[in-house]
Amino acid sequence: MILIDGKKCSADVRQEIAEDVKALKAEGGKTPHLVAVLVGHDGGSESYVAGKMRACNEVGFKSTLVRYEDDVTEAELLAKVDELNRDEDVDGFIVQLPLPKHISEEKVTEAIDPRKDVDGFHPMNVGRMTIGAPAFVSATPQGIMELLRRYNIETSGKNVVVIGRSNIVGRPMSILLSRKGEPGNATVTVAHSRTKDLKEVCASADILIAALGSPEFVTADMVKEGAVVIDVGTTRVKSDLTKSGWKLKGDVKFDEVADKCSFITPVPGGVGPMTITSLMINTLKSAKKEIYK
Q1: Is the dihedral of CA 87, 88, 90, 95 positive or negative?
Q2: Active-site hit among 96, 117, 231, 285
């Protein structure tokens, strides 16, 4: 069993990005600039955005954090999105989700200029990704593809099962792995809460990707010998063994599944570190005009 080290992979990619940024500046290019818009004080969002700002500093990007209180109006937020769309110094920006209930996430997402949509959520980027055209791919699926690539995990002709059909992970993951390319060329099944014989479906997978947000859902009897298991889950569960009072759990029951796997991602330290790094990849691509010429 080989443990897929997302921390090391993330560090390697960030070093490569930092070197690319140095070269870009040496050639007279501009410093890539990422803006994060944060509404309210959700703990998870605060931590995630802080991590993005640290990553920008690490790779040599310029970063800006725009804060709003929970009572910001939808009109005010959309006005800021329009301002960022028109700001030529901004290469990419994200509006951190979730947003307060009185603000339409769909309306805000669709208002972002696709050329600056480094989160990869805009319908235009999703559509381009679907047909195999250059696009900003959402961070978690892109991070998983990078892990598969760097660990030389064969996907061509393999049977892949993705548990979960979210627009952020499950659906794009299934499209990316079924497209022509490397990684890719897999036969993909998207499983979910209505899937019949879910245990048997999962046990048929050469590569199993768990992205349903249910801690330790995947057990040993759902995994075949030699399978590759990618655990996307990150759920906080109460724990008396930690100072914080909680522990991060994945969707896979790691202790009983790991011995059956050829490769497996841990939680934490697997897919997670690659998510923010993927945002850095997209921002650099935007600064270099690699997606939209």
Answers
A1: positive
A2: 96
Exposure b/e, 248-275, CB count within 10 A at least 16 = b: bbbbbbbeebbebbebbbbbebbbbbbb
Q: Which helix (H) or strand (E) holds 255?
A: helix 254-257
Return residue ranges of the chain for CATH 3.40.50.720.
139-271
Residue in the block written with tokens 């110094």: 89
Residues 6+ apart with CB under 8 A from 6: 143, 147, 265, 266, 269, 270, 271, 272, 273, 274
**Intervals of CATH 3.40.50.10860 along the chain:** 28-113
Tens digit of pLDDT per residue, the chain (293 long)?
999 999 999 999 999 999 999 999 999 999 999 999 999 988 878 888 999 999 999 999 999 999 999 999 999 999 999 999 999 999 999 999 999 999 999 999 999 999 999 999 999 999 999 999 999 999 999 999 999 999 999 999 999 999 999 999 999 999 999 999 999 999 999 999 999 999 999 999 999 999 999 999 999 999 999 999 999 998 878 777 777 777 788 999 999 999 999 999 999 999 999 999 999 999 999 999 999 97
Check 91, 117, 119, 231 and give the catalytic one: 119
- Rounded-to-integer distance, Cα 149 and Cα 270, Å: 14
The pTM of the whole model exceeds 0.70: yes
Question: For residues 169 and 174, what is the distance between their CA atoms, to the nearest angstrom?
Answer: 9
Look at domain 28-113 and name its CATH class.
Answer: alpha beta
Fold classification of 139-271 (topology level)? Rossmann fold (3.40.50)
Q: Rounded CA gap, 146 and 281, in Å?
A: 11
Q: Is 52 a catalytic residue?
A: yes
> What is the rounded CA–CA span in Å between residue 180 and residue 126?
17
Residues counted in the chain: 293
